[in-house]
Amino acid sequence: MNKRKSPTVTSHVARLLRKVLPIGTLRRHATRRTIQEFAEALGLVYFGYVDQHADEHELVRGFTLSTNHKDNHYCVGSAYNYDVILVERTDTLRSPKGHAHEYSWVILQIDLHARDFPHAFMTAGRHPEVFYSTFFMKYARFQKLPASIWQGSDDLFAQSFTVFATPESAEQLVRLFSPDVTASIGRYFEGIEFELTADKLYLYISNQNVTPALLERLYKNGLWLAGQLDSSSVVNK
């Protein structure tokens, strides 16, 4: 008859592992377990590490795409009639001046039903100079849109979020992101950045410990925003 391990024994083993294994290794194990369990609960298929140069899979693009990034904990599936991909992406960003910064993103890609969205990136985060150097090398025509275009929107959104896009897309973005939508973004998207393209929505959380609560918030907020954008696209045609 098998005996269950007592909490004391389990705790003792955990302490021994913390002494033997580096903190980074323990964190990677914890991240893998958290994402695997989250994927299983939602019915997503977990693939683990995928090689962007060799494996056959849909490559998650967006501004984090590079020739050197590494994708791990790749999960794919569907929810509420949306096809989704969840992945952890790591990369080293380097500026022309030689500055480097390690980044780890948890990315949720959602395939939108509409196909004609403008390209934009919205962030309330603070990043080092190398982040923006890399960003504008990829999106040379992007500019920081003036906060004045969001007149009538929630003050928290206008004060907290910076929107990068081409100037000619500003009018369409204001129609898509109504005051009700920007109010919810300002209140509930702290720590979440997102990128909108022609037919996809990318949500990013960078350099944070991956927890079930963090993944759940990313997932729920992403599906909510996808639904709002698809509805706004139909209304504004």
Mean pLDDT: 89
| Assembly classification | single chain
- Biggest β-sheet, characterized? 9 strands, antiparallel
Instruction: Give the spatial strand order of the biggest sheet.
Output: 1-2-3-4-9-8-5-7-6
Q: Considering DSSP H and I runs of 4 or more, what fraction of the residues is helical?
A: 25-40%
Indicate the radius of gyration in whole angstroms. Answer: 20 Å
Structural category? alpha+beta
Shape: globular
Written description of the protein model:
The termini are far apart. The longest helix has 24 residues. Strands 1-2-3-4-9-8-5-7-6 form a 9-stranded antiparallel beta sheet. It contains 7 helices and 9 strands; from the N terminus they run ααβββββαβαβααββα. The chain is α+β, with helices and mostly antiparallel strands and 237 residues long.
Nutshell version of this structure?
The protein has 237 residues and is an alpha+beta fold. The chain has seven helices and nine strands; from the N terminus they run ααβββββαβαβααββα. The longest helix is centred in the C-terminal third of the chain and has 24 residues, at 212-235.
Write the layout of secondary structure elements.
Blueprint: H1 7-20, H2 23-42, E1 45-50, E2 70-79, E3 82-94, E4 100-111, E5 120-123, H3 129-138, E6 143-144, H4 155-160, E7 162-165, H5 170-176, H6 179-188, E8 193-196, E9 200-206, H7 212-235
